[in-house]
């Protein structure tokens, strides 16, 4: 059993989190989900979604898979040095790191994405790029995979990426079965990005 | 401003809730979101998602749009007479009622769907149908609209339905804009159901 640790901050994007949660949640034999934040407080967003979180720096079990969402809150979070440090520390020890949307900018800021190929939201791409020029930003990709790093385009692309992650680890049939269960038309081709340009 | 009241119960399906939340959340000029349950307690599910809810029978403002998710918890919830009564009372006074997945079975049980055309999850369709034979169940539909009732197929169909609801009320361009913002390929045709049969 691997822990999927989701690192939240205020004004995260709702579906960036709960799309991947729905997919990982379909594989309870492999994954369990935990919700973290820097302070371990209640985290909320503009959709009136609030989440009780655990303090990430006091985690009692290693985060095997770190998931970082995007959202308008990234504009503030990127200047939160303690949060970026927590991403660096947690991410260094994680087996895999997944980002959705502008979550890639936070990961880039930590330095862990240096010299990696990565993507982000197409509507905030210039902003994401500005978070680090050491990243090889790919502007046309539904999601990117480079080593242990998976980065997706905006919001619902996180569902496609997580299904792709499942396919990489557990086979395409497993991903296809999960997609069918949630009646979702999975885009399995990470180079097929209908929202580029 | 209309209140979208989401009625939760334990073991609701994650994306049934947060897909529509992401769409409604894109229209803060029209909608605000509230999370309810029968007891007003913390509601959780098998994905380790927990939600602080308000008690639905003590609501202080009318629920204009009632949203009922599905999930494995519906199998228990359908026998909870107090919950079904709350659906009947709240739904009677709501302007619109939306269900995702097997949420339709709970609404059907309340009697409010009698003689209406409705759909549900394609993998639990027989169970949904058994909740009430007074409903005109439609087995091939991404979502159905009959008067003030919107019912969708499984899980991610709730996103398509909510975008359809937005289109009906605010125009297709508004729905298309929201879909583009979340980089989601909206299926705008409710008769196009790739998961029927």
Task: Walk me through this protein's architecture.
- Two copies of one chain form a homodimer.
- Chain A has one domain: 3-Layer(aba) Sandwich (Rossmann fold).
- Chain A is 33% helix and 21% strand.
- Chain A is built from seven helices and eleven strands.
- In chain A, strands 5-2-1-6-7-11-10 form a seven-stranded mixed beta sheet, with helices on both faces. A two-stranded antiparallel sheet of chain A has the order 3-4.
- In chain A, helix 1 links the parallel strand 1 and strand 2 (31-37).
- In chain A, helix 1 packs parallel to helix 6 (157-170) and helix 6 (157-170) crosses helix 7.
- Chain A is globular and about 40 Å long.
- At the A-B interface, helix 1, strand 2 and strand 4 of A face helix 1, strand 2 and strand 4 of B.
């Amino acid at each position: 059993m691997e822990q999927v640790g989701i690192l939240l901050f205020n004004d995260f994007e709702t579906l960036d989190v709960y799309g991947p949660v729905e997919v990982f949640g379909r594989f309870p034999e492999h994954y369990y989900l935990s919700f973290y934040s820097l302070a371990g407080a209640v985290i909320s967003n503009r959709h009136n979604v609030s989440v009780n979180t655990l303090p990430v720096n006091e985690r009692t079990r290693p985060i095997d898979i770190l998931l970082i969402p995007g959202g308008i809150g990234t504009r503030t979070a990127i200047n939160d040095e303690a949060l970026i440090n927590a991403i660096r520390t947690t991410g260094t020890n994680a087996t895999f790191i997944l980002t959705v949307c502008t979550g890639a900018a936070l990961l880039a800021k930590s330095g862990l994405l240096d010299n990696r190929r990565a993507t982000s939201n197409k509507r905030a791409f210039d902003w994401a790029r500005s978070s680090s020029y050491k990243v090889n930003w790919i502007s046309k990709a539904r999601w990117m995979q480079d080593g242990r790093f998976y980065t997706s385009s905006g919001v619902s692309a996180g569902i496609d990426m997580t299904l792709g992650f499942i396919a990489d680890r557990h086979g395409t049939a497993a991903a296809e079965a999960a997609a069918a269960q949630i009646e979702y038309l999975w885009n399995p081709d990470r180079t097929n990005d209908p929202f580029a340009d």
